[in-house]
Amino acid sequence: MSTNCCGGSNFDKGAELQTGRYRLVLWLALIVNGGMFLVEILAGLAAGSASLQADALDFLGDAGNYAISLFVLGMALRVRAKAALFKGLVMAVFGIWVIGNVITHVISGTLPGAMTMGVVGTVALIANAAVFILLWSYRAGDSNMRSVWLCTRNDVLGNIAVLIAAGGVFGTGTGWPDFIVAAIMAFLALQGAWVVIRQALGEIREEDNPRPVPSSLN
Fold it and tell me: Is-contact 23 59, C-beta < 8 A?
């Protein structure tokens, strides 16, 4: 009777089912992001688009993030926090790389292909929107889950920005809209990295210095 009242075995089964669903969602996200990386990196190089190349590397980074999340799922909070810390650092490196890539394109005066940007950007938006919907129920939680959610959110925003850049390149006949959008994507990556790293470090500190449980009064 007490098991039913307190949730005992039913709660455990529910948590296990929830973890199983989350694992399936992560696998789907991993497959989508891995495939879209190949599509976008080839299209970005062919079109000479800094924003498409940035989005492609974002897909690759996310695929790695989902793989790490799958590996640590169900492990202790400290392990998940350390994984999130690593992912936050990867996000920061990605942001710095994009900034360097933008500078290179500005110096060389690259004019990207607006049509390719528009078509590939639309496909990428559809793919990320599907992942966004799947992960909506898991947007809160520990730093590891939050890092997954932030990556997905940034992806959707980045895809919309790529489409805006494509329209800007087509309308102005210059590469500046592409450069600006790539720079914004770098900022989103750095901002997301800061949030994830801060939360992960906080969780690690909590594990190292647990708060004492107050003794019950008699």
Answer: no
Structure token pair of residue 67: 């793989």
Domains of the chain: 14-204 (1.20.1510)
CB count within 10 Å of CB 47 equals: 26
Summarize pLDDT for 154-187 with one digit per residue, the tens. 788 888 988 999 999 999 988 899 989 888 888 8
The pTM (predicted TM-score) of the whole model is 0.67
The residue whose two tokens read 């890539």 is: 101
Radius of gyration from C-alpha coordinates of the chain: 20
22-34 residues labelled b (16+ CB within 10 A) or e (exposed): beebbeebbebbb
**128 near 159, Cβ under 8 Å?**
yes
Q: Tokens 């730093």, residue?
A: 143
Per DSSP, the residues of 116-173 read: HHHHHHHHHHHHHHHHHHHHGGGSSSSHHHHHHHHHHHHHHHHHHHHHHHHHHHHHHS
